[in-house]
Amino acid sequence: MSRTRRLKIMGESCYYHFLSRTVGQEFYLGDTEKETLLNIIKYYSGMYLVKVIGFCVMSNHFHLLIKSEPEHIYADEEIVRRLKKYIPKLEQCSLNDEVKIAKARAKLGDISEYMRSIKQTFSRWYNKANGRTGYFWGDRFKSIWLQDGKSLLTCLAYIDLNPVRANIVNIPEDYRWCGLSYRVYGNNAKNFLTFDGVFEENSQGSPDIMLRDYRYLVYKWGNVTRLTLSDIESGKTEDTRPKISDEIYVRELERNFRIATPELLLKRVRYFSDGLVVGSKIFIKDAYARFSKDIILKKDRKAHKTPLGNYIYTLRHITSSS
Fold this sequence. Notes:
The protein is an alpha+beta fold and 322 residues long. The protein has helices at residues 31-47, 76-86, 98-108, 111-129, 150-160, 162-165, 179-184, 207-222, 229-233, 246-254, 261-267, 270-274, 281-291, and strands at residues 14-21, 50-57, 61-68, 142-146, 278-279, 304-305, 313-314. α2 crosses α3 (98-108) and α5 (150-160) packs across α8.
C-alpha cells in the first residue's frame, strides 16, 4: 500500500502540526534527551524558513507547531547568510552562484527536509551516546495542515496541555519541555516562539497581553472534562483523565492570569542551581581564567544572559524552567 503524499503548500505562509514517535513508542527520552532534542529543534528552526509557534517533548514523542514561510520573501543575502552560518563547508557560496542559492532556497523551504534534519541529527546523537545502532524513530512523522486563527489556537493549547493530560504536572508551565513553560519561565529566550497566526489581527496586543490571553484559554480548556465517543460507547459517565483543577483555575482567574514577579523568580531559580557560575560578564570571564585548564572547556566560554536581570549572566546556557 502506497503512502499518502504530504500536503505541502508552496509560495505562501502555512501552518503545520508535526508529531513524531519513538520506535515501538519506547520511553527513550529522559531529561538529557529532551533538552538535547529541544536544542536541535532550535538550531534547525534558525536554519530553515520556519517560525516555531509551539512544541512539547514527551518521553516517547514530540510535537511541533510551525509556520512555514514562502521562499520568495527571503532575499538571496539571507539565504547565503544561513548557508554560511549553519553549513560552514558551503562558505564558498557567493551571491553570484545562482544555481546553488536556488537549490539551497528550495531545501530550506521544504518542511520534510526540516523534520528530517531534526530527527536524523537527534537519532545519530542518541545512538552514539548510548552505543546503539538501528532506528530511533518509528513511522514517518505525521503532519497536519492547519488554518490560522481558532484551529491553530486550539492545536497549540492541545500541545501545551499534553503533560497535564499525561498526569506529569498540574499546570503546563511546570513542564520544562513545552512551549508555555518556555514563554513564561524561560522568558521566550531569543524570541524562539511566535504567536503569528494564533490570534485574529484585531485582537493582537503586546506580547504580555497575548501571553495572558493565551494562558486564560489554556486553563479554561484544560479545566474542562471531556467525554469522547468511545468513552460514551464504553459506558463511561465522566472523564477520569487528569485536568487542570478547579482550584487552580479559579486562582488564576482571580488574578487575571498574571504571574507575579516573585513567582517568576522562584521558577527561574534553576539558574542558581545549574548555572555553574552566575554573575556579571566580568565575573564570568574571571571564572574562565581561573578554571579554563581543568574544568571549563574552551567551547563553553560564553556569558549567557538570564531573565533574572540586565546584568546577571550564567556560564551554562539554561533554556527554560526546571
